[in-house]
Amino acid sequence: MIVALLGTKPVITVLRKRKLGSQVRTGEHAPAHEGKSGTPIMGGIVIIIASLIGYVVGHVFTGDPMTISGLLVLFLMTGLGLVGFVDDFMKLFMRRSTGLRSGAKLIGQAIVGVIFAVLAIHFPDSYDLTPASEHLSFDTDFGVSLGVVLFVVWVLLMVTATSNGVNLTDGLDGLATGASILVLAAYVLIGNWQWRNDCTTSLVGNCYQVRDPLDAAVVASTVMGACLGFLWWNAPPAKIWMGDTGSLALGGTLAGLAVVTRTDLLLLILCGLFVIVTMSVVIQVTSYKTRRKRVFKIAPLHHHFEMVGWAESTIVVRFWLIAAMFVALGLGIFYIGWFPS
Questions:
Q1: Fewer CB within 10 A of the end CB, N or C, for the chain?
Q2: Quick one: 254 exposed, middle or buried, by C-beta within 10 A (0-12, 13-18, 19+)?
Q3: Domain extents for the chain?
Q4: What is this structure's pTM?
């Protein structure tokens, strides 16, 4: 948090001096955004660097060894952040308002996601637990094994869906950052709870078979701290935006945490706000292509509320409240799943 809080200001200064700001498309679809042109992007670099520094420093000071689960989630975050960085770079330096083509972006996400998925089912510990399981999971694993191929496909779907969901939500000052903080806070609690009820130390019916639950909580807390520091500068009116560098990285972090904590499907509830925003785009595109009619004035959903007259700060706070309710629901379900019958 301290690194992001203190480090974002000089990044803003450098980007402004080099005039590396976003060119906002103004007009009837975004009349309230006319004063935002020139706002620096690529702020996600600060989140990534601060997270990595926080993770390393925490382990150095405590003397606890880094785990393969934690390192894999950080690899996923950094790898997707690199894909987003290329996208932002093309927007700024090559003056392409759309950045990377959607196909190229998906290929980049796929490469990083496949590497993560393959590595996550290796590196067993002394209890033969690997960072990920080939089973589907909700609050714990269930059902039969998917097998390597289907597991990789499943993880790839999670990674691309979550990273793109955060990316679509990152349309108003502080919206995606604040919502991500809430989900990351949930994973701090989930990882810590799994560690306190670890099957390797407590062989009871309601324990968890997770390889490195405490380090998953550490990763979640470091990224959450970085987001908190960044939010100081990203809150309305934003002095800097995270760009695709940050949104893809944060989405990858959430997907990676779900995989290593065996909470794949629970992620859908915890990330309920991102799901709603993504579905608003899907509904809008499907309706227009099939009926030539729009369901919303504009998609994603937060821009629709702008068009009907809501103030940006009002939308952001209310969407944060919606995100908080989904996180509370997810944590409640997680706790009920553990509670002894």
A1: C
A2: buried
A3: 2-18+41-338
A4: 0.93
